[in-house]
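User: Quick sanity check before I run a bigger batch. Here is a single chain. Can you write out its predicted 3D structure?
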Amino acid sequence: MLALLSAACGGAAGPWLVGVAHRNLRTPLPLGIAWRVAAAAATALLFAVLTLRLGPAPVLPAYLVLAAAAVVLSIVDLAERRLPDRIVLPTAVAVGGALVLDGFLDGRPGVAVGVLLGAAGMFTLFLALAVASHGQVGMGDVKLALVVGAAAGALGLSTWLLALVFAVLLNGVVALVALLTKRVGLHGAIPFGPSMLAGALLAVALA
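Assistant: Done. Predicted structure follows.
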């Protein structure tokens, strides 16, 4: 019942999230009914899966915020290949802060340590990738790594590693499909943000 209620809330929030994404585009695009339906379906599915996985746990709202932000950020990244700070940074504070606070209130300081180390580790890794890739990985991806690392790190090292592996694999699949369909050339840029977010949420769901 809780998962169904959560899915309904996610479905209702989907069109609003498209509106948030639209307001964060530098060049407004016509995000019509197809975008709103897709966002509603994606948000409903994410909310349902996370609720089934976590149940009525105090950490659930933090992961629902991450799922909602993932929808907004994915739309913007797909449209303009950028991740706006005014969505990424508040999400990092909200998700990371909520998980750290829950860890201390629940008498599990290890959760807070996992959040901080996970965020720092993922940030450092993506910063190194940004330097080595000469622009293929952008600073928006580096900042997003704070969010992804914190969310996955709260559930342990194995979840953190899964989030990283899934992000790389998903981005590889997207790049391969884009090449085969001639959407991009060999040196074309593929948005990494959606793969990072999907990888983290998938890792949380499987944790």
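Residues 2-206 form one domain.

User: Great, the batch can go ahead then.
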